[in-house]
Amino acid sequence: MNARPTDAGAYPVLQVRGIGKRFAGTAALEGVDLCLRGGEVHALMGQNGAGKSTLIKVLTGVLAADAGALELRGEPIAPASPVQAQRLGISTVYQEVNLCPNLSVAENLFAGRFPRQRWSGLIDWRSVRRQSRELLQELNLHIDPDRLLGEYPVAVQQMVAIARALGVSAQVLVLDEPTSSLDEDEVEELFAVIRRLRERGMAILFVTHFLDQVYAICDRITVLRNGHCVGEYLASDLPHAALVAAMVGREVNMAATAQQATASTAPAQAPVLQAQGLGRRGQLAPTDLELRPGEVLGLGGLLGSGRTELARLLFGLDRAETGTLRIDGAPARLRGPADAVTLGLALCPEERKTEGIVADLSVRENIVLALQARLGLRRFLSRAAQNDIAKRLVASLGIKTAGIETPVALLSGGNQQKVVLARWLATEPKLLILDEPTRGIDIAAKQEIMAEILRLARAGMAVLFVSAETEELLRVSDRIAVMRDRRKAGELPGGCGEDAVFELIAGQ
Q1: What is residue 412's predicted lDDT score, i.e. its pLDDT?
Q2: What is the spatial distance between Cα 133 and Cα 112, in angstroms, rounded to a whole number?
Q3: Residue among 373, 384, 450 at smallest CA distance from 417
Q4: Considering the entire predicted model, what is its pTM?
Q5: Which of 56, 155, 223, 373 has its CA 20 to 30 A from that of 1?
Q6: SS in 3 state form for 81-111?
Q7: What would the pLDDT profile of 134-174 be if each residue is shown by its tens digit?
Q8: Helices (H), strands (E): how many in the chain?
Q9: Strand pairing of 26-37 and 12-23?
Q10: Nearest to residue 209, comparing CAs of 95, 302, 312?
Q11: What is the longest distance spanned by two Cα atoms in the chain?
């Protein structure tokens, strides 16, 4: 796959040449080039850890590059802060709107640059309101500038953030995952605004994980992988499968996927879990899923595809707004994780350090945490019972620790992950949801956890294994459900091969 050369017809607004950035000796970016042109929407694509966030931080003055140069309309620039980048004409709208919900729309639009009355130096509120209405009108946004920003939905708040960028005469607009919390109608409203800005000649950098949205709105695509620039392409010249191949680093043999199936032959047992039309506005389209005892169901897809969102709905961390859920054939309504645990579900979350371990507690305390919560304070586990449970699971999972009273924060990442797994095994769940259980751990620990998944399935437990690593999914899964753009793209048998999975991810 060869990058398409720069077209002479489009004029460069912001050029990035040979940017490098290292952290503790590790290269996050190395020799990265990027050219944003006026009147174009340019997608920045790459998997988690590809370098997208680091590059955005360099462009917007959050980080200083170790190598390379930036040019804005041919003039060298080196923004030392986001404020300075904004003054130069580079504005950013983040996934999490970084405005003040407790201030009015108008105050957010003009914070830090209020027009002043000549004779008194006080804020000219009449001018603020008039200019606010003008900025909002440019985006066809009919809202009251005097109302608190927090009273409006996230989609409107993002429009206000874009309006603020227009108010500071932005030449470059960076949109960092702007659609992650929007539903389909809100996404289309945002795209209408982006198209109007493109027609005005603005250069727009669009960072997203949603492949379909890239082709709906973007003119060009730059792909990063492992801190390097794979290439720049015209969107019209880059098929979905080729884009996925550029991101993951391997070609997809489309002819090899003729055996693709919508589902594998299900085991004979009755389902442990049945989800029908399960969804949540702005997070996940209505989704069907079924798991049976002794089965490992892999859940694959690129980052941002909806994998974690589905896991959270199944465990009650987020409340579903559509669909039904049945556990062992009986209707289940999850008001929170406590209900899920009571029904025999368990979840090892993706963020081990922030949502998994309790760093200040010992290995023993971490392991018995969920079981004690399910039993309640009136059925307190004795210290002897806690010791027995902790020692048994430390031994069976091969957790390397000086003892069960060792603070869990002192363990390696792989052993911390095993402690989180042990916590949920102590509850003897019928369904175990594992969200990226092997991320960030060494190869040996990864192999041990994969072997444990297979052992649990052989013992009759149903396992939902969520992973971005297709090779891992193929190793342990009886079936694989593939997510794309926050909806289920389809299901495949476990022995389908990587190409079949990539084809569903690419939407071919």
Answers
A1: 76
A2: 18
A3: 450
A4: 0.65
A5: 56
A6: CHHHHHHHCEEEECCCCCCCCCCEHHHHHHC
A7: 888 877 788 888 899 888 877 788 888 888 877 767 789 99
A8: 16, 20
A9: antiparallel
A10: 302
A11: 83
